[in-house]
Amino acid sequence: MKDLKRLKMEAGESESEAVEDIDTFLDRFVLSRIGIEMLNSQYLALFTKNKGIADPNCDPCAVARKAAQVARRLATQEFEPSLLPEVQVTYHGLRDVRTIPLVPSYLMYILLELLKNSFRAVAEHHKTTKSADTPVVPIVIRVASDETQIVLDIFDRGGGIPFVQQQKIWSYMYSTRRTLPPGVESDEEATPLAGFGVGLPLSRLYAEYIGGSLQLVSMPNFGTHAFLFLQRCSSRKEGMPTYVNWLRKRHLLEELLDVEARKRAAAEIEDYAEALRLKGLAAEARAKLKEFY
Question: Looking at residue 126, which CATH number applies to its domain?
């Protein structure tokens, strides 16, 4: 991806334009791949087990606890257990709206990516700013629901993300990893907790594909909230991008830039006309002065 970005910039595109083009292409490609993968997985599951991959009574709290166990196991490969926080999962809502029709593996992927980031952020932040006797602040997952949707709030005290970097977190060209781990010589290598910088954008795509959304609110030097919204509506269509919509957005942007250029040109013409008018008035005044002298 870095080579593609470099080629686009050599072709005359700005860095922001190159990154936007790459992100847009990858979003469309990956969402299409998710749709194909879901059809294949559903077919194979029905063919071999007579049971599809969707769970009509998926419990987000149970999936969150399982994701926390897996994330902790991965984190122990990179950090000492004393640096790793506990994960507290709490539910706030009525019992009869606790479950939701969902593909558990998709929710598992999203939560695992978020928790991997949280474990790494908390461990690094605690290691650099706290003393050894200070207890590690736990990661808190709050699940709330009503008749229309379920929301999961994953909160960590890992120091947050600087404001200048928060606009980049959804890009495939950015990684939340602060420094390269020991023994890793380049960004092309990955660790169990810090991969290639695609975890957050892929998690958002999975959330949008199943009709939900993923939002991050980060407070620098404090912590980060990740809000995952899941819709209960079973008739909602899959979130697939269309090339036409992308082209329409691109054309609208070009038209907007064209309108701005026309406005600037019109202003320059008006300024030139005013200058000519003033020049004519000055010439007329000089002619009248010659008549008197």
Answer: 3.30.565.10
